[in-house]
Write a structure and sequence with these properties.
Blueprint: H1 3-9, H2 17-24, H3 28-41, H4 58-70, H5 76-82, H6 93-102, H7 118-130, E1 158-162, E2 169-173
Antiparallel strand pairs: 1-2
Helix pairs in contact: 2-3, 5-6
InterPro entries: Homeodomain-like_sf, RNaseH_sf, Transposase_Tc1-like
Organism: Littorina saxatilis
Protein name: Transposase Tc1-like domain-containing protein
Length: about 180
């Protein structure tokens, strides 16, 4: 609250604090606290707080939220490149995510897949129409997400198996 507003309303302070709070449309404890702070420090400004200062100003945070609302599909890293913080550094994606979360927004991850052209869509549709009557044939198909097949090298996985519950453990290395 500005000092000038409080000082202008101080002559009204002879009335009960509740009526002054109604005039200024704030809670009565706010008025009490500001009057005490004005008497003690001579100012209504906030006192400096301990802790790490914010990397972004309120204006920069508003810019981040506004740019995200204009283009919600851009990544946090792209928004961070546009925003330079108070120290002149590029803002980190984590800071961008925190600012958006405080505004009840979520960062979206960019799509990481192959972009389909019209030709790809046509080929996929032709394949599905050719295979739509398959019933038993699907049992012999192995989909790539169910199995990993290494043609040229090992993935360095080691599988340990306990044979006959004995204390001997045989280690199988899978090589090509």
């Amino acid at each position: 609250m500005k000092e000038s507003v409080l000082l202008a309303c101080l002559p009204l302070a002879k009335r009960p604090k509740q009526s002054l709070s109604q005039v200024m449309n704030v809670h009565k404890s706010t008025i009490s606290r500001l009057v005490i702070r004005l008497r003690v420090t001579g100012s209504t400004d906030d006192t400096p707080r301990s802790g790490r200062p914010s990397a972004l100003t309120a204006r920069q945070e508003r810019f981040i939220v506004r740019s995200y609302r204009q283009n919600p599909f851009q990544s946090a890293r792209a928004v961070g490149r546009q925003t330079v913080n108070a120290q002149g550094r590029v803002t980190s994606p984590q800071t961008i995510s925190r600012v958006l979360r405080r505004s009840n927004l979520r960062c979206r991850r960019p799509y990481r897949g192959q972009i389909l052209t019209q030709r790809h869509r046509l080929l996929r549709r032709n394949w599905t129409t050719a295979h739509r009557n398959w019933r038993r044939e699907w049992d012999s198909v192995v989909f790539s997400d169910e199995c990993q097949i290494n043609l040229h090298c090992t993935d360095h996985r080691v599988q340990k198996r306990d044979i006959n519950c004995a204390s001997i453990v045989i280690v199988f290395h899978f090589y090509c």
